[in-house]
Amino acid sequence: MIRRPPRSTLSSSSAASDVYKRQVSTQSTGSQQSTTMAGTARPLSDDLAGLIAPEYAANIESVLYTPEEIQSRCRELAAEISKDHAGEQVLVVGLLKGAFMVLADIARHLTVPNMVDFIAVSSYGDSQESSGSIKLKKDLAINPAGKHIIIIEDLIDTGGTLAWIQSFLGTKHPASVKLCCLLAKTERRSEAVHLDYLGYECPDGFVVGYGMDFAEHYRTLPFVGLLKPEAYATPKNQTSE
After folding, report:
1. Which pTM does this prediction carry?
2. What DSSP line would sit under 105-170, residue for residue?
3. pLDDT digits 0-9 by tens, 173-183
């Protein structure tokens, strides 16, 4: 999924997700410890920069969610899903391409029987703006009839794509359809989409990493970070395929 450029640096928080914004991570620095709230912009550390392409590191303005914060929340989301579906099996559905990392990290911690499938739609191209229409590119390979579907997504922004997918899968006679998103923005939400499982409320900004991209780049970053404005405002600065 490609996000639109931000209107501002921060979005307002929803009451349902405030608890997750208050989650903190403690990092040791020598003999001192610093406590940082997940979602707070932090400089890209040398350690994280060393894990990614230098061309990508040069375009990262700040880090919002570290690998440790992401993995911790994925384990918690898996526990919530498993508790709600005790005694049942679930069909975990990821939206290609953005959900491939978060789906894997949540699904690996599920403690209920599960199957995995993917769906692909198109609403964005190599630009920053949605095309305004959603087209199905890949349907499920597994018949979802009678199954409990958990749609896992990296980020919900306007909500249009997830609302369409939820409605589409609902026509296939599943037992239930629930939505799980690692990150949620509210600034540009145009669809009334209910999130059953939420990782973090995400500050407004052009976020990349952990499945999220700009023009198909940055997906494999192990963290979620803010992209420098000049990186998406000037296509010539973007690395080529």
Report:
1. 0.80
2. HHHTT--S-EEEEEEEEEEE-SSSSEEEEEEEEE--SS--TT-EEEEEEEEESSSHHHHHHHHHHH
3. 999 999 999 99
